[in-house]
Amino acid sequence: MADQIPPTAVSLIDYQQLANEKLDRPSLAYLEGGAADQHSSEANIKAWASATIWPRVMTQARGATTQTSLLGLKLDSPLMIAPTAYHRLFHEQGELATATAASALNTPYIVSTQASTPLEEIAAQAAGSPLWFQLYIQHDREFTADLVLRAKRAGFQALVLTVDAPVNGIRNHEQRAGFQLPPGISSVNLHGMRPAPSMSHALDPRLLSSLPNWQDIAWLKELSGLPVIIKGILHPQDALLAMEHGADAIIVSNHGGRTLDLLPPTKTALPLVAQAIDKQIPILVDGGIRRGTDVLQAIALGADAVLLGRPILHGLSVAGATGVAHVLRLLQHELEVAMLLTGCRSLTEASSVINTPN
């Protein structure tokens, strides 16, 4: 029987509740858990909700559109699918279901290094829709280079280098639930890599010597010939450094609150980064986006596009590819309604919704 959308799933919050009811405790802890006491992950959502949006009435709406451009892509919407690991934890078809939904809606999909499906199969399933490859630089640099070239051969159009998680965060929620990957699910695209040396502590010199650095941006660009987007920027000075070292775009992200607790919510960091970058390269943002009004705020604060992480996995858990597509459609519809009710005919007019009126 094909996956079906539950009649009660009318918002992203509904999908989260339905997924939470369906998943086993360890998988749920992996999906929803944040670092330490989870202040950062919770603050992401609360920050978008603590806002005032100014409406406009009787405006000229003819020709209104959510279309945008990003690194040469002409997109119908600023929505993108963020990189998240192990989709087969949440549905038997895993990343193939996510790619099916992305293809159906022509939504860019950023595939994780830790995908549970071979990247070539994901690319084939995406059927020509925009695909980017998220990269963790591995301790084995030769393997990392081969992985990058493998992604390029498969048709991925950009690299997303995640820089904010050189080590795993302290995820007490997962530890308490005893989370472990079940048999048959793994980071299949990392198979064949030589094992990492056993580390005695987080400041082990062998780990420190293998961490990514700013010069890796140029290395990846020369190696692949692809645009390189840096994911995990919060501090404006890091945004400037990324741009100075050749980043083609940046993603304002605190890793969904999963690496370090007490980080600022992405909504707080976004305008500071946008001011520093001053429209010289595109800015994307993720973290806690659950409503169309959140998307509109993000665009108003300087983002060119937004990434959805956990909501995609909620939709996948509940109804596979159908659920992922429905999550995207719900948020798209909410964005369109928010634009209409605030008098925005295009995303370039979004700043008016948060500025205090004269």
From TrEMBL:
Gene3D superfamilies: Aldolase class I. Residues 4-358 form the FMN hydroxy acid dehydrogenase domain. CDD domains: alpha_hydroxyacid_oxid_FMN. InterPro entries: Aldolase_TIM (IPR013785), Alpha-hydoxy_acid_DH_FMN (IPR012133), FMN-dep_DH (IPR000262), FMN_HAD (IPR037396). PROSITE patterns: FMN_HYDROXY_ACID_DH_2. It holds the Pfam family FMN_dh. Its cofactor is FMN. The keyword Transferase does not apply. It comes from the Bacteria. Keywords: Flavoprotein, FMN, Oxidoreductase. The keyword Lyase does not apply. Belongs to the FMN-dependent alpha-hydroxy acid dehydrogenase family. This is 4-hydroxymandelate oxidase. It comes from Rubritalea halochordaticola. The gene is hmo.
